[in-house]
Amino acid sequence: MYNFCNRLAVRSHLILAPHHSHPAPLPMESALFSSSPLSAFVPRSPPSLASRPLRLLSLPFSLLIHHSPPPRGGPPLLPRRLLRRFSPAAYADADAAAASAAESRSSGDRVVARPSSELRMGRPGGSGTGVAGDEKLRSLRELFARPDVAIDAYIIPSQDAHQSEFIAECFMRRAYLTGFTGSAGTAVVTKEKAALWTDGRYFLQAEKQLSPDWILMRSGNQGVPTTSEWLNDVLPAGCRIGIDPFLFSHDAAEELKEAISKKNHELILIKDFNLVDEIWKSRPKPPGKPTRVHDIKYAGVDVLSKLSSLRSVLVENGCTAIVISMLDEVAWLLNMRGSDVPNSPVFYSYLIVEISHATLFVDNNKVTPGVLDHLKSAGVELKPYEEILSEVESLAAKGAKLWLDTSCVNAAIVSIFRSACERHFTRLATKSRKQLNNGASSDLISIKSEDIRNGIPNGLYKVSPVAIAKAVKNKAEIEGMKNSHLRDAAALSEFWCWMEQEVKNNLTLTEVAVADKLFEFRKQQEGFIDTSFDTISGYGANGAVIHYKPTSDSCSFVGTDNLFLLDSGGQYVDGTTDITRTVHFGEPSAWQKECFTRVLQGHIALDQAIFPERMPGFVLDVLARSSLWKVGLDYRHGTGHGVGAALNVHEGPQSISFRFGNLTALQNGMIVSNEPGYYEDHSFGIRIENLLLVKEVDLPNSYGGIGFLGFEKLTFVPIQSKLIDTSLLSPMEIKWVNDYHSQVWEKVSPLVNVAVRDWLWRNTSHAACWTLKSRGKMRTQLMSTCLILSISMFARPIKQQRSVRERGGGGSRQGGRAVDSGLGVI
Amino acid sequence: MYNFCNRLAVRSHLILAPHHSHPAPLPMESALFSSSPLSAFVPRSPPSLASRPLRLLSLPFSLLIHHSPPPRGGPPLLPRRLLRRFSPAAYADADAAAASAAESRSSGDRVVARPSSELRMGRPGGSGTGVAGDEKLRSLRELFARPDVAIDAYIIPSQDAHQSEFIAECFMRRAYLTGFTGSAGTAVVTKEKAALWTDGRYFLQAEKQLSPDWILMRSGNQGVPTTSEWLNDVLPAGCRIGIDPFLFSHDAAEELKEAISKKNHELILIKDFNLVDEIWKSRPKPPGKPTRVHDIKYAGVDVLSKLSSLRSVLVENGCTAIVISMLDEVAWLLNMRGSDVPNSPVFYSYLIVEISHATLFVDNNKVTPGVLDHLKSAGVELKPYEEILSEVESLAAKGAKLWLDTSCVNAAIVSIFRSACERHFTRLATKSRKQLNNGASSDLISIKSEDIRNGIPNGLYKVSPVAIAKAVKNKAEIEGMKNSHLRDAAALSEFWCWMEQEVKNNLTLTEVAVADKLFEFRKQQEGFIDTSFDTISGYGANGAVIHYKPTSDSCSFVGTDNLFLLDSGGQYVDGTTDITRTVHFGEPSAWQKECFTRVLQGHIALDQAIFPERMPGFVLDVLARSSLWKVGLDYRHGTGHGVGAALNVHEGPQSISFRFGNLTALQNGMIVSNEPGYYEDHSFGIRIENLLLVKEVDLPNSYGGIGFLGFEKLTFVPIQSKLIDTSLLSPMEIKWVNDYHSQVWEKVSPLVNVAVRDWLWRNTSHAACWTLKSRGKMRTQLMSTCLILSISMFARPIKQQRSVRERGGGGSRQGGRAVDSGLGVI
Lengths: 826, 826
Description:
The structure is a homodimer.
Chain A: H1 2-9, E1 15-16, H2 52-55, H3 61-64, H4 92-104, H5 116-119, H6 133-144, E2 153-156, H7 173-178, E3 186-190, E4 194-198, H8 203-209, E5 215-218, H9 227-234, E6 240-243, H10 250-261, E7 266-269, H11 275-279, E8 292-293, H12 296-299, H13 303-316, E9 321-324, H14 327-333, E10 336-337, E11 350-354, E12 358-361, H15 369-377, E13 380-383, H16 388-397, E14 401-404, H17 411-437, H18 442-455, E15 458-461, H19 465-471, H20 475-505, H21 511-523, E16 528-531, E17 536-539, E18 563-568, E19 570-572, E20 579-584, H22 590-607, E21 611-612, H23 618-629, E22 640-642, E23 651-656, E24 671-674, E25 677-680, E26 684-687, E27 690-697, E28 708-713, H24 731-748, H25 754-762, H26 768-774, H27 779-795, H28 798-806, H29 810-814, H30 817-820
Parallel strand pairs in A: 1-7, 2-6, 4-5, 6-7, 9-14, 12-13, 14-15
Antiparallel strand pairs in A: 2-3, 3-4, 8-10, 9-11, 11-12, 16-19, 17-18, 18-20, 21-28, 22-23, 24-27, 25-26, 27-28
GO molecular function (chains A, B): metal ion binding; metalloaminopeptidase activity
Pfam family, one (chains A, B): Creatinase_N
Organism (chains A, B): Ananas comosus
């Protein structure tokens, strides 16, 4: 309620540029906004102060890290879209890429994808393009003077119209204009100057790619202003600053408006055309691949039921309609999937759900007859994507009480609705006054006013109810997630088995080649569609770059002298995966082992957490860090993000992070990642990531009648035991590792061939303790370890042990190599 | 900054009743406000939404417990005064008591105190007083009609004018009027009705004590309205509701004003007299005992230096003066102590610090020549306590920029300053207009306006900078805290040694007698002044009442069949202590041992925490609960509160709690309690409390250049090993217990006599492991335990072992009794 009231209090005074008949290429306009990728999980442009540091690129670096508490006050709204510790990936090197990946997919039953290396080509607006940087700027500035534009500056952010993490190539306007292809950046062009803001990850790249006409603003560096501070500085007072209102959430636009008002600048919403599109000669076409129905066996709940639940919420909140603009929310609600953007099975669209009917705004050519039937049976009408604004206007005319999540719905939609509301209010008030003048009794007028009030359209500006409904998975979604994770685990086992051999024989095995090979293994799994994000394949120092993305022309070879970090995920018809493993193919140093072990201890502590219901995720974050803190270590990203079921790999509203602003309680059925890490600059990176299902736990007590929650693992891939310093682990932690590996063996061994099964056995058996003991290492400290181990060894299913013996005893066959080779065991 | 802006935005429209020449008994008026004692650590009436549930008594009970996240939004101000999980104690049975304790203290070098039992007499307005309840109400209502009052209702809260936790008897107006002597409650009297709000702890007591003229409002029960909701319900629209503005913080008054404005009621600030005082025939005199100088060897920093630091902060914030109204802040800043209220060595006063001088508003008769010299040498003037309002007015006249912490400074002071500011603004504006009309050039006017702006008084409404300065202890304060804790530990060892014998021989040993005996032992320690709060001495089911306070007429006998919880503390010349131990003098059940062990595990986890600087305390709260959560248990209070150095036992702004609103970072030099617990209704209560000093730790790494903090224990009293189920403990936890007991032995044994030393040895030695082993219990699980133990045994100083052998071997002399007797050992 507080948020609601608070938001209502924010009055919109955005100025809309006059409508024109100018032929806009598409009203659907987008770009990447300055979502700071220094932060692990960034809420989707929420109006909360707590999230501001994440959105204003040039805030002091120290604000973005080190657990600085969020600024006090401000409505701590539920963050919705959670961006990634690593690159949002919708942009840089592999992103145009991703768009062509979408192209390569067939729309039929069997989806075909292409490997990463093939996708890493063709950047929009790269330095190799025909038009010189200054030429583009000149063309853009010419537009400033046009009477239907009339602005002094234009801001080109990095968003699309839906706040998507991954966006289509045709919306990569900032990259086209600036030539800078990093995933995060905001360009600002005045009549005299042009500046690009990006963060520490991209300073070098931006220096290379920007022409001398551009000023590089190194966000996070001391003294670097924000975009609005810069505009207030370089422009004389009272200028007109233009934006494409489709590319800003309403809240972001309001924030910008307020910031520039300090210098009496006006924010001009130019909604009929995007200025970059006007000068973009060979702009790629918007994606047009067909959508598909997401099978009810994976979706679990049919569209009518979902719509019915949503309508109940609308009625409860006194609303008659809602505009849904987040692509994953539309896809989830309508049990549909698409392939408009890389890594996420979504399609460009808006959805308006009213009490009696629903309308999907989507390009007709994306709707196959099957999809059309599916939609019809749920009572969903179709309208062209471009008609969203006129429909919102006509809703206002009908007196709609419209639910708008202003943290994600773009400023174009919100401002047009507000203007329409004001117009209708004025009209009705005039009518009412006339009646009064015509001699109607004041009593009558009073009644009329009541009617008028009821007939006046208005907005409820509140976080979308679909976000939480989507986050709490149903039985079928959980089933699909579990199944897809097992197939993914099989692919990863095959991959690691291959990798262990390959790295010793192939001295020129690159990080990209590794990612490509992993893609090959995943592709062989049933129901595989695509990667769920660009694979982070980082050897040695590259592993320490949290947002590392290897490119085929500049990546490292993977060797046996350092740690190798691999963070990857798959999109399957029934689920979405996200897993990180860190391994060493040679001899890890004691220091690397200590760091790895402390990260593992954090991973275990979070995995094993039991906590009362209604607990926000941030409360648990400390559990994942304590073991690192003990020796003065830490990591500069969150510990867990939500994951969609066969949808976006990053979703809200829940998270597990040191950012205290997100008060969303963890709930039974939610899925979160568990990914503590440690990164040593210029040296190595460590991260261990599993996905977890939040689950009610049955405990002997229930203090105060409160339910308790815990986690169930979804990910089953061995953790490299060689990297574990067992002397640091408690018996409970050793038991956790052994139990986990037993589960991995049980679940994944039936899914792989004999050779891989052998690898799996070696990496999930518990024999190393004895090896270590015989070496006389740490004999006394390990006594307790061995005790527990021996118990858990005996507890291991007899059948399993026998099968190994029959195979020649994976562990013993490899002999001492278990420890000397790439993958040791505890 | 956000708070500042936010608060400035709150406009005061409080209506001041006209000034009268009515002979007010004292302008210093106070009462206890409805600080909900259900909550462990309640911020001092902050304006933050997060704290509202704690202040509005009739909110649903569920809001007060179960980790419900704080309401989103609202400026999360630093909580200042931290109330107690147990009774604020300024009121109920023992509180008049406490006032007479103050009386019994000599003001000389040696301070004499009296035991609790003697103090538990003479309640103001108890049912035994001469005037019948209805008579008082009739007299009060007669005043409503007086022209200088003219109100329809009057609210009598539980505060004094300084938001003190412990208040003097003469300010216990709510108790006098209602006859209800519980520590928390708010009375509201209209012309027809009279209602009293209190919480679950006091329902039975209130039922007994209230006359039939009073409606009992059971706060926390479903459907029970808040005071303002009730007023809005029972009064016709547009009534005048009176309060004594000295008894409400400005923020609390503003909140009340807003709530009642919904029914168009006006809030009337009657500042010249308190209506209850008008009818209180034999009202006790305000406390008048002399103050004393707090020795520089304990204070560490002289007054001039403290004032100088404060003045720098004022200048940095563009202020020319500050009003300090919290009694502990005045005492700390001036290195003075007093004995106006029980348990806290403070004295009723206000302090105004300006850039060039400072004024203490205090009754002259409290200032001895020594104190006068002390104040003079620091440039502090004296003025009568009653002149605070006129001084604030004259500050406004001088154009002061006044710092006011509206979360604690009362509404009388803030509103008089604001009114004065407005008057001066109007006057200057008129003057400026006149100059313009007289033909001065506009340039000149512009300069004049600048001057005028500079000359206009205004307020900075921000948390007092003294709070954090006081919370971060200097070297001498830390030294004093450490020393007083050792003497306190000696007293407690003597006490427990006595108790262990007494409980077996004395079948009529009451909870109060136990508290009295403890008081006797403490009194024998050098520098002891008083208890730091009323001792919580709870046997069996009484231990489960978190805020339990035994009374001599109704308390239980302490026996050997159940757990006994003892939470107590002392005020010493050099420090303040607060410690809880739970013991069993017979055979604890396995369940009690499990619960105790899990509480201990939480205690250890927090004690051992290492965390980056700038971390709010609430981040660590989960560490103290995890072990309980694992089996579905929890406790409904915070885990840690700040403690003053020879000052209030509860102080802010830091805390360690599941309330996420307090973002105050823990800092090197702060002191916090570590007191997880578990309470089983009608059965038993467990709490283990030590005080901890926040300390920088020297770690092998410093990730990102961040400093790390940890805790150093201040409390050294054995934890009853008999209650520990060692099978649940990790080797690290067992080592913690053993190390702690080694420290207790080393530090405390030199301070006690031979008999007590023997008790101390038995309760700090590590022999039980072997005993358990020989019993063949849990042999395998304990192997690791024994290993660690044996190592730590060997590590024990030889000298210490020898001394025991010389004494005949404390452990062995007692033989098997170590486990069978009251206090076992690990």
